[in-house]
């Protein structure tokens, strides 16, 4: 059993400039070396991923004149998982004059992240958020508008100001299409070379620097090597380690996990966000979970029956026998408490036997009041497509009866460790978007992931990477390093294909997911984590012995693709549990049952855990490097939404 | 309750191989399954029997990425209106039904394997002009240009196209008009899209032709199968912009 | 969950999608007339020219109810239109040339679009495609057009040149009309009825479609446009048909 880890040197410098927080980003921009325009063409950057982060980064780097090669596993960059984001994107525009400001967005994000994020990064994010909206609007992103022709906003979980810009329930789609179109423009201009249906399987590190990637052409099966002066990973989150999550089926950890194996530290892997409003599981066949936008909580009221075991239909339960538990426990925020709190509250009431629907794993989200107050038409206008989606999946009409919702894994705050420049611990390897760990601390606020992805991609990375590239080109890559990485990839594929076992990769993945959900999910205990750390290596062992993959290496082989990803999920799952076990405090999305206050709220242990846990890969088990977090601007306080 | 089905599925090893329809019997299907989950189950079986699973494209499984798509019983994305294949649930099929499953059929969408086709032609249509040129950081304040709500809403309606290609699959002419028109309309309804409006329309229409898509004869099959209900008047808008520009 | 498999039982003979393997070919860009949209515009404009002719033609035909004199005078007028400013038959010839050009261009674009379409869809679906939109008329456009052309050829031989008319080329237009649709020649009348139904269907779709093609339609105008298309095509069919029917049942003699 590998619960053990060793502790290495702490991380002392995150490269954030000193001085007043408002000036740090300006300062960094000014100090970053500039690349001579004539040299840009000669500098080659690889970008893995075409979501909001990768798409906007590749487009912007191309526009700046760098020579960019971009990869995604889908058949076109437009399908990256960012497309699925529904709710909206935050920005400190203060168009409403309701007291919002850069400082307030910064404050809310630090607090929402339960004081486990870096102040400098978060402040920069809040500053840049303003430019994102300008950029998107100029690209033709059709945000919702008011009759006066100006942009509409709404409020979102965890915020008391209305700063979320949205495009009906398809904000992610519209923002991604904006980035995608910018990217296609660069592809047409020849500055970006796009490889779709290509999966990154390893990172090439040479002479201590990230110099390229090994990818598999998913159509022909060919293993290709691509070298460059810098590599940017924008491969998204790893929520699919739980098998069931709201992530797209193809989301995986392979890109970042391989980079981790090659020396990039992995920070805070255990911070996972469980989203409170998803459609409950309907049976064993379930292949993924569908999120209902959190914006529904603006008008929907969450409740369960007062009595345990009440099986009457919702309509037969009178008002006084209902428990609107969020409104009851958190009068100030009510149904709008942050995600982790809403999720855990749902779990608690279900654990008390008051859950509704099949298996008792669900709570009601009721729009009856909203329909009465605003009229059906207004509700339809606001949430029509979400209601439709719900009906399509469940066969139930949410206008007539309350929706049933249940929490599901949604977002991973952890990811590769990066400094203020978004550079990982491998020089030349930059990590952006959900793939890095940077800005959300232990919990991400709604509508902040899109903001971070675009901030990284359009504005931050293009500046900071220039500082690194200004010292390039970095010359020839040692052939041996490339060959070695490639050989490893080939070996793994060979192993999977010749294994000839008796179970499919999916069935292992499902089992791994159940272990993770059960023991490293919404609530974690020392005991559960130890159990997981016992089960995972056993199951991984069995997986490598007994998985069955049909088909050939040199063709489109979806069974092979999945098996490869599941293999990496096993390793990551283990690190997640080790991280979760070592962090004996509760914070944000990481709730240790042992660490709660009298009311059952997450209890942080700032004394001992106010650090980022950055894990280095070690053959003898992971090595922990701590990066201390200092709060100069936002006073640390116990989060309270009561 | 569970159901038993017969599937007739197009199997084709690779782009150059001759394909054929193969019959599969699938039993114990739950009506709560999605269509793709039903195929997952069959595929797990196939893998265990050492067979190639049926290759099909999918990712988000919630109707937004546009990756999935197959012709089910002769209708792109199946009979259910405004629904992608991944959102189609088995409760809409009868017990013992025979279901025919084929890939999108169009020359510019060559079959890659089984139900997977190559839709990169769509990307090249966008490359031709489906964008507004704004380098990052150069944009004016978002409120500097108000946009009438009706225009913004109509632009949004057109912008919801997910690029799935069902319109092409359904069109008797194999035309990509609805897809192309959706993008042209989205951008030409917004003030930001005006400077490049003419060149965009010409370039995108020409690229659509160059890719080998057919012309539109206003049959309207496309909009009928479009999972996002992209309206037919986007095509009128495209025609209008094209003629205006070509003048 | 179980799944049984019958391997390799091909249920439909399907053409191998032989040469559909394609990499991005550098587009051959043929300018306005080379583009599908340009061709469509040609079709719509030439269609509109023909529709205008048909309206006039129908109105003229109705003169036959006013008697032989009136109708013959009208036929004569067609030839003397524009005189004395223009020489005899010049205007009519211009109209005829315009019509011939319109028909030729219309057919050219119809044929090249049809060829493009069949290249774009080389493989048919094994499951019968169910039409889900826009009704029946839309699927008659291509073969309907062919029938109409065949009809026009016959019609010209019949009533314009008289070659296929019992009254012969020398007779007055009125006589050719009366003799041509004589009750004994019911099959001619039947052929006209058929052809006109095709014309009606063609226009039922073609009329609103032309607006769509020229970018003059919008979701708000679809309903009125389609109603006008249906109304006008019905009017044309009826307006044209009353004449041969009246002859066939002896109202006009
Ligand atoms: C259902 C849902 C709703 C959400 N709603 C919101 C919201 O309303 N507001 C908000 O702020 N956030 C929301 N989020 C979170 C947000 O969408 C994501 O965090 C964000 O889009 C991630 O963007 P990304 O660019 O980092 O990665 P992604 O968009 O996930 O892109 C990953 C890219 O990497 C590529 N890739 C991955 N692995 C490989 C590999 N091995 N080789 C090659 N390419 C690879 C993929 O092809 C893809 O292009 C939502 C998330 C979900 C799941
Ligand atoms: C002489 C009588 C004819 C008239 C009045 C006529 C009229 C029209 C009109 C108005 C349209 C609509 C154009 C558009 O949609 O943009 C049209 C379309 C069409 N016509 Fe004709 N046409 C005639 C003859 C023909 C002939 C002879 C053919 C065949 C060779 C033909 C084939 C077509 C086709 C294929 C279309 C395309 C359908 C469409 O665009 O929606 N037509 N016609
Ligand atoms: C059933 C109804 C119709 C009748 C009774 C009818 C009658 C006639 C007559 C009598 C002429 C000869 C006129 C002359 O030479 O002076 C004529 C010419 C013509 N008709 Fe018709 N017609 C009918 C329908 C149509 C239709 C449906 C079309 C086309 C689709 C058509 C196309 C023409 C053309 C092109 C000419 C030649 C005009 C010219 O020479 O300039 N007719 N028709
Ligand atoms: S127009 Fe509709 S059918 Fe066509 S690609 Fe877009 S969403 Fe799919
Ligand atoms: S189905 Fe085809 S013909 Fe036109 S209206 Fe749609 S593209
Ligand atoms: S899988 Fe994304 S739309 Fe169906």
Secondary structure layout plus pairing:
The complex is a heterotrimer of chains A (642), B (247) and C (253).
Chain A: E1 6-7, H1 24-31, H2 37-40, E2 44-48, H3 52-64, E3 67-71, E4 89-90, H4 102-112, H5 119-138, E5 153-154, E6 164-165, H6 171-189, E7 192-195, E8 198-206, E9 209-217, E10 223-227, E11 230-233, H7 254-261, E12 266-267, E13 272-278, E14 301-305, E15 322-323, H8 325-329, H9 339-351, E16 363-366, H10 368-374, H11 376-394, E17 403-412, E18 415-416, E19 429-431, H12 449-469, H13 479-498, E20 503-504, H14 505-520, H15 526-546, E21 547-548, H16 558-582, H17 606-609, E22 611-616, E23 623-628
Parallel strand pairs in A: 1-23, 2-3, 2-11, 3-7, 11-19, 20-21
Antiparallel strand pairs in A: 4-6, 5-6, 8-9, 9-10, 12-18, 12-22, 13-17, 14-15, 14-16, 16-17, 22-23
Chain B: E1 3-11, E2 20-29, H1 35-48, E3 71-72, E4 75-76, E5 98-102, E6 111-113, E7 116-117, H2 120-129, H3 149-159, H4 166-170, H5 177-188, H6 197-210, H7 221-225, H8 233-246
Parallel strand pairs in B: 1-5
Antiparallel strand pairs in B: 1-2, 3-4, 3-5, 6-7
Chain C: E1 2-6, H1 31-34, H2 36-62, H3 68-80, H4 90-120, H5 141-160, H6 173-180, H7 186-213, H8 222-248
Helix pairs in contact in C: 2-4, 2-7, 2-8, 5-7, 7-8
The complex binds flavin-adenine dinucleotide, protoporphyrin IX containing FE (2 copies), iron/sulfur cluster, FE3-S4 cluster and FE2/S2 (inorganic) cluster (FES).
